[in-house]
């Protein structure tokens, strides 16, 4: 004998299929007598509803689609963990897609997840075109956009105040007793880079110190190594004893250059990164850096999305700004 169906339940209980559906979904009032008959029939038949069919009827899948640019980007994996673990608390599962920075792949992922009847979308990207944003809005699926490099009008999100955090890190280095601090940042014109440069400049102005900035191409350790000679010459010429770099990877590449050229970190030069990637606490010397709570960003994002899905009180009436912390390690003194 095959699995019992809703028709079997209705026949045994002596009621209509619609009455069984109302009892199962608690959608409309049913008399106590009819409800009990249905519950007894479900128990006797050991009936288990087809969740897929049920979701098609109820338009409720308890699924959230998550699209990332690349799982190989470390912070994206941390965000996903926060989304997935907190999503499960609210009985939501995730369907994961990767776009690999390709706009067509991103649009295809949006279409695919829409066919799976996801109730909401979380897009974790480093760049989103206006065309894709329009497509997202046209799906009418509630969504949260997490983009560390760009800001979008009329879209509230969970984010970091990079200006404030770079300001705090710069002040921290001066509070350690350094007279001059060099900031090495990426030259690309985007929200994140502008904010970090502004944070450094604000601290310098407030402390009435001299400004030293080096703008470079690239974001990885090789780029940090390649800028080493120019940065060290600038430090020696201007009595700079601390260097703050845009991220941990560039900072580690810069420390490698220092090591290869007889410059001891932190005895000769203090170095700080930004992001607190996993390598920051493994590399020697351990890297002083700013720790970003990526897990918490993911957790708050899924909570906000579920509230949107359920039309409950909105927790993102404005951007939710997360606090970071400075992690002092061996690379600075």
UniProtKB/TrEMBL annotation:
Q: What InterPro entries is this protein classified in?
A: HTH_LacI, LacI/GalR-like_sensor, Lambda_DNA-bd_dom_sf, Peripla_BP_I
Protein name as annotated: Catabolite control protein
Cleaved signal peptide residues: none
Instruction: Please report a single Pfam family linked to this protein.
Output: LacI
**Is Glycoprotein one of the keywords UniProt gives this record?**
no
Q: Supply the source organism for this entry.
A: Anaerococcus octavius
Q: Which GO terms describe its molecular function?
A: DNA-binding transcription factor activity; transcription cis-regulatory region binding
Q: Which UniProt keywords apply?
A: DNA-binding, Transcription, Transcription regulation
């Amino acid at each position: 004998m095959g699995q019992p169906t809703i028709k079997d339940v209705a026949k045994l209980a002596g009621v209509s299929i619609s009455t069984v559906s109302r009892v199962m979904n608690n959608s409309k009032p049913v008399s106590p007598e009819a409800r009990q008959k249905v519950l007894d029939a479900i128990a006797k038949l050991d009936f288990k509803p087809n969740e897929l069919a049920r979701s098609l009827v109820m338009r409720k899948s308890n699924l959230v689609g998550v699209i990332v640019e690349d799982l190989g980007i470390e912070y994206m994996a941390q965000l996903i963990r926060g989304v997935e673990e907190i999503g499960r608390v609210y009985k939501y599962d995730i369907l994961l897609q990767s776009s690999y920075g390709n706009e067509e792949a991103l649009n295809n992922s949006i279409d695919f997840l829409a066919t799976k009847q996801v109730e909401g979308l979380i897009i974790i990207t480093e760049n989103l075109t206006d065309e894709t944003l329009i497509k997202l809005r046209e799906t009418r699926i509630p969504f949260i956009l997490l983009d560390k490099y760009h800001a979008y009008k009329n879209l509230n999100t969970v984010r970091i105040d990079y200006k404030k955090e770079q300001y705090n890190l710069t002040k921290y280095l001066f509070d350690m007793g350094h007279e001059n601090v060099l900031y090495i940042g990426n030259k690309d014109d985007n929200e994140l880079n502008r904010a970090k440069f502004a944070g450094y400049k604000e601290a310098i102005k407030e402390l009435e110190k001299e400004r030293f900035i080096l703008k470079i191409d690239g974001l990885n350790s090789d780029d940090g190594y390649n800028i080493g000679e120019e940065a060290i010459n600038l430090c020696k010429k201007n009595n700079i004893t601390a260097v703050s770099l845009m991220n941990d990877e560039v900072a580690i590449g810069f420390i490698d250059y220092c090591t290869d050229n007889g410059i001891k970190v932190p005895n000769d030069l203090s170095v700080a990164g930004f992001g607190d990637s996993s390598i920051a606490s493994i590399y020697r010397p351990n890297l002083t850096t700013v720790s970003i709570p990526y897990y918490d960003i993911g957790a708050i994002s899924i909570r906000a999305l579920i509230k949107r899905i359920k039309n409950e009180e909105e927790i993102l009436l404005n951007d939710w700004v997360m606090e970071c912390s400075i992690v002092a390690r061996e690379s600075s003194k």
